[in-house]
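Duplicate of #3305? Posting structure anyway:
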């Protein structure tokens, strides 16, 4: 059992939860809690840290079965707290290998792709929620710029509730250029914009399409919005000027899903 927070393995795991640079350089990320650990594909697991209390539950013990026992490390509650990004760890944390999707993975993910293009979505909760809602709505991929929150930030991972393991995603240097390439392949682009000509539920999303969604405070940059075939707005009453980026994205994605079911 590891009881020292100065242990090299413990320090590496803790760094993955706290520093984006550590995640980038290692190609690893931190997963915390029973739900996120249970859904994590076992072939992605590099190491698992568990407490005696966690393993004392038969259901929890089953979660580690099938994982090389050399990768499973018993730690004290204090050590797990040092590793964890949360205030109240739930007995398990894992180090996992990051994903490596390409444009082709997203482009060829279905006959009628539905892609989210995210510009500078900086709130980790928003980014994670967009992935989670995206899986539920049937999106085929999420593409974001490098100014957006780090998708491997523990707060993002938790907000996805497991969707990060299943929805293809890509972080790119040039979001506009990438969106333009998809447009050249026949993807129709819609920009979520307060100056949209039509309400979002008055457009046709049954073909291959993508939504451009901008920063929580500033929205889309003009040059990004100008890539769109159409600007769409979400009608609102009261004194509300705009919606949370995750809420707006969910409305757009589920409207596309509704139309496609028809």
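Output from current build:
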């Amino acid at each position: 059992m590891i009881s020292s927070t100065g242990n090299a393995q413990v320090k590496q795991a803790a760094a993955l939860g706290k520093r984006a640079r550590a995640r980038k350089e290692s190609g690893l990320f931190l997963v915390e809690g029973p739900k996120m650990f249970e859904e994590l594909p076992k072939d992605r697991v590099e190491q698992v840290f568990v407490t005696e209390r966690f393993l004392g539950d038969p259901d929890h013990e089953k979660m580690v079965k099938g994982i090389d026992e050399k990768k499973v490390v018993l730690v004290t509650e204090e050590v797990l707290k040092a590793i964890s990004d949360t205030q109240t760890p739930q007995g398990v944390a894992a180090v996992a290998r990051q994903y490596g999707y390409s444009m082709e993975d997203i482009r060829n993910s279905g006959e009628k792709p539905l892609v989210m293009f995210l510009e500078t979505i900086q709130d980790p909760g928003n980014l994670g929620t967009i992935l989670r809602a995206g899986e539920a709505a049937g999106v085929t991929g999420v593409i974001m710029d490098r100014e957006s929150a780090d998708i491997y930030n523990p707060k993002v991972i938790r907000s996805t509730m497991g969707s990060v393991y299943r929805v293809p995603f890509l972080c790119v240097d040039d979001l506009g250029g990438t969106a333009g390439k998809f447009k050249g392949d026949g993807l129709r682009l819609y920009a979520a914009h307060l100056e949209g000509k039509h309400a979002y539920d008055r457009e046709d999303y049954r073909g291959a399409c993508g939504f451009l969604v901008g920063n929580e405070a500033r929205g889309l940059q003009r040059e990004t919005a100008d890539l769109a075939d159409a600007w769409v707005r979400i009608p609102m009453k009261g004194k509300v000027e705009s919606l949370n980026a995750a809420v707006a994205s969910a409305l757009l994605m589920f409207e596309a899903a509704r139309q496609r079911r028809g």
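Confirmed duplicate; merging threads. The longest strand covers residues 45-50. The mean pLDDT is 95.
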